[in-house]
Amino acid sequence: MKDIHSYWAYIVLIILIYAVFNAITGFRNKRNFTDKDLRIGLFTLIVSHIQLLIGLGWYFMSPWYKALTTNGSEVMKDSTSRLLALEHPLMMIIAIALITIGWSKHKKKTEDTAKFKTFMIFYGLALIIILLRIPWTNWFN
Ligand code: HEM
Ligand code: HEM
């Protein structure tokens, strides 16, 4: 479960960066919002929802959750365990919520530029949050 989560993270990051880049260029060049743009947004949503599911699955099986519930104050004192037990899971849930909100909001916009703008803001914010709270050192070790 943990390994699937680590590998799936590459897919999430790559597709999300691509989606944000696509939204920025679409917005700045005032392109038409096509089927392809829709599919990029939807694919990003699905990939990140799957990561949410895998993340939650692992989290409740993981030693981090157990440590947080049995020995919370020790976990909170140590920045590494606090990141894995609390900050990363919480911030990732917020980021995926932003992606979901962005997806919902874009559907209600009628102008193409407004659709790109919605994706740019919500997916972009999500990307920043994710980059800030990935446990980078664990990932590459
Ligand atoms: C813990 C697991 C999950 C939660 C809490 C969750 C939550 C949500 C929520 C709140 C929405 C509503 C978006 C809207 O207002 O339109 C949504 C949409 C969606 N979710 Fe998930 N989801 C989860 C897992 C998954 C998984 C595993 C998949 C794919 C295999 C998935 C695929 C989708 C798709 C395709 C939509 C949007 C459909 C559309 O608007 O056209 N989700 N999800
Ligand atoms: C955009 C969504 C997410 C991304 C990109 C992501 C990415 C990552 C990465 C790269 C790691 C390091 C993996 C490693 O140790 O090799 C990790 C670890 C972890 N993630 Fe996520 N994650 C996401 C969402 C979540 C969610 C929603 C949860 C739980 C609610 C979660 C729970 C965890 C836990 C508990 C670990 C620690 C693994 C361990 O060392 O035991 N993640 N995540």
TrEMBL record:
Residues spanning the membrane: 6-28, 40-61, 81-104, 116-136
Origin superkingdom: Bacteria
UniProt entry keywords in alphabetical sequence: Membrane, Transmembrane, Transmembrane helix
Protein's recorded name: 50S ribosomal protein L27
Organism whose genome encodes this protein: Asprobacillus argus
